[in-house]
Amino acid sequence: WAGGKRWGDRLGEEAAAWYAQAGQANLTPGTYLSAAEAGDPVAQVMLAYVLAVERLNATGSPPDVDAALKWMGRSADQGHLPGITGVGALYWMQEEYERAIPYYQKAADMGDRAGQVSLAYAYMSGKGVARSDTSALRYFVPAADGGNTFAQKMIGNLFYRGIDGA
């Protein structure tokens, strides 16, 4: 699935590769349910994605964001970085930006590139936080230094238009 590559810079290559494969598979919530119930944080994240993204769910069920948040939250509670960032992403998808920010902040503080990029984008857009190009730059830089091309592009955009009006 082409979107897997397109989102590689934002999600991280490992998550993007899974997302690309999942788009071609016949996944159902049951694919991951037993492992998620047993406490596997990776299975909890995968189950949450299947529940939240209609095109990944082979049953044709509509998205169930509440259930996705439950499972993603269980992964986050175990300190699993994709779960922490994923809770933020689910809140962001629901336009609950203020609720997303603490999760993005925690992931960014733990060195997660997806969390850094997401938090930087929030600062750049002013969603959930006060708009600040300087703060956006502070979080884009480590992700860009780590090879994230989306962060590199956004840094270029910030400098092109002038950071905080400079």
- The first-to-last residue Cα distance is 40 Å
Q: Tell me the number of helical segments per DSSP (H or I, 4 or more residues long).
A: 11
Overall 3D shape: elongated
Number of strands: 0
Structural class: mainly alpha
Quaternary structure state of the chains depicted: single chain
Largest sheet properties: none
Q: Strand content of the residues, in percent?
A: under 5%
Rg to the nearest angstrom? 16 Å
The H/E string reads HHHHHHHHHHH
Q: Stretches where pLDDT falls below 50 for ≥5 residues? A: 1-8
Mean of residue pLDDT values: 85
> In percent, how helical is the residue content?
over 70%
Description:
The protein is mainly alpha-helical. Helices cover 70% and strands 0% of the residues. It contains 11 helices and no strands. The chain has helices at 2-6, 8-11, 13-22, 30-37, 41-52, 65-77, 81-93, 97-109, 113-125, 133-145, 149-161. Helix 5 (41-52) runs antiparallel to helix 6 (65-77), helix 7 (81-93) packs antiparallel against helix 8 and helix 8 crosses helix 9 (113-125). The chain starts with a helix and ends in a 5-residue tail after the last helix.
Topology of this structure?
Elements: H1 2-6, H2 8-11, H3 13-22, H4 30-37, H5 41-52, H6 65-77, H7 81-93, H8 97-109, H9 113-125, H10 133-145, H11 149-161
